[in-house]
Structures are given as structure tokens and as C-alpha cells.
Write a structure and sequence with these properties.
The complex is a heterodimer. Chain A is mainly β. Chain A contains no helices and 11 strands. Chain A starts with a strand and ends with a strand. The chains are: A mainly beta, B mainly beta.
């Protein structure tokens, strides 16, 4: 079984709808991240969480919210989806003991979201 | 903005070594060099990281110049499955930030 799972894997929705993307991990990591990727571009950080009580905005948090329900679960919500939020969304985790290994992130398979 | 510069694309013959360069001329003393790759729309995969010494693991080798302003990722015997976008990232150890640029699209040809 995969260590980092994302649901759904694909989603088509309409403008204005509320959407939740879910991420679960079995790696026991404390840090979790949400990224989006647009065609031909690198990943951009939306939100990250260092533990259940610690949530931080990333580079492009506007229009998104997150919830860290448990150490193993981190959800991303689009309260009112718009077409330019059409993208590939990745969840990631990290949990190295210290220093450089903290940046060894493990990524989920991605969720392809289309907003019409 | 990403702190690294990479070629947009490279080609390599199957079985040969793939050498992927990265410039990071503004790297600071406490920043590491990380390499990730992304195989067509899959989640990125961590490859290797280093501070100033050369590093090797089961996937690749990382050669960092003495002045730390550039590095090279070496895949010693490239296979077709190594076709991917390779990202070179500079970041402080323990930082929450991995800034992904556009990377290098490596195509391994039969």
C-alpha cells in the first residue's frame, strides 16, 4: 500500500462549488504539505503543517483553506472553486529527524482537479 | 523565485551516464542542494541531497563544486524509466520551503 494517498484522484467540478481534497499518510511523519502544479511549471506551495496545531500559509494560499484533522490527515478545501484553480494537486510529508533530512519529502500520487 | 538555473531539456542514450547540471551561484553557507525528479505527472520523488561533499546513493551521485556555486547530478547508467523532469533545489536544512523551478526534462533514448 502507498505511504501517502490522495482522494479523489480526479475531480471535475463547476465554478462556485466547494471541493475538498484529502491526504492521508502512514509514514508517521509530522510535517505535511499541499502543492499545486500547473502545466509546464514547477510545484508551488499552498499550505504546510508542522503538526496538528501548526498551520502555515505557503506561496499561493489565497482561495484555499486546510485542516489537519490528525497527524496522518491533511485536507485542502476550495471554498468556491474557480477555473484558474484547475491544476494538479500534490500532498507531501516529511519527518526526518533533523536538519537536511527534514527536506526529504514524500509525495502522494496527485489529484487532477478541473473547474469548469 | 527558484535560486537555481537548469537547462530546459537534455537527451541521453540508454545505458550511458546522464549528467544534469545546476547553477546555484547565490547559495549560502547553510543551504543544501536537493534533487527531485517527477516522472510524467506523478508525485515528485526525492533523489539525493548534499551540502559540500560529494554524495552517492543507490539512485545517483551528486557532485558539488568546491565553491558550491554549481552541482551535477549523475545517473550512472540511464534507463528509459529515468525519463523525467529533474529539479535542483536549494534550501536550508529543516526549512519548510522547497521551491521548485521548471527543472530539466531528461529524455533517455533507446
Amino acid at each position: 500500500d502507498a505511504d501517502v494517498t490522495q482522494t479523489p484522484r480526479n475531480r471535475i467540478t463547476k465554478t462556485g462549488k466547494r471541493i475538498m481534497l484529502e491526504c492521508s499518510q502512514t509514514k508517521g511523519h509530522d510535517r505535511m504539505y499541499w502543492y499545486r502544479q500547473d502545466p509546464g511549471l514547477g510545484l508551488r506551495l499552498i499550505y504546510y503543517s508542522f503538526d496538528v496545531k501548526d498551520i502555515n500559509k505557503g506561496e499561493i494560499s489565497d482561495g484555499y483553506s486546510v485542516s489537519r484533522q490528525a497527524q496522518a490527515k491533511f485536507s485542502l478545501s476550495l471554498e468556491s472553486a474557480i477555473p484558474n484553480q484547475t491544476a494538479l494537486y500534490f500532498c507531501a510529508t516529511s519527518g526526518g529527524l533533523a536538519g537536511a533530512s527534514r527536506n526529504e519529502q514524500f509525495f502522494g500520487p496527485g489529484t487532477r482537479l478541473t473547474v469548469l | 523565485d527558484a535560486k537555481t538555473t537548469q537547462p530546459t531539456s537534455m537527451d541521453c542514450a540508454e545505458g550511458r551516464a546522464a549528467n544534469l547540471p545546476c547553477n546555484h551561484s547565490t547559495i549560502s553557507g547553510n543551504e543544501y542542494v536537493y534533487w527531485y525528479r517527477q516522472i510524467h505527472s506523478q508525485g515528485p520523488q526525492y533523489i539525493i541531497h548534499g551540502l559540500k561533499n560529494n554524495e552517492t546513493n543507490e539512485m545517483a551521485s551528486l557532485i558539488i563544486t568546491e565553491d558550491r556555486k554549481s552541482s551535477t547530478l549523475i545517473l550512472p547508467h540511464a534507463t528509459l524509466r529515468d525519463t523525467a523532469v529533474y529539479y535542483c533545489i536549494v534550501s536550508q536544512g529543516g526549512s519548510e520551503k522547497l521551491v521548485f523551478g521548471k527543472g530539466t526534462k531528461l529524455t533517455v533514448n533507446p
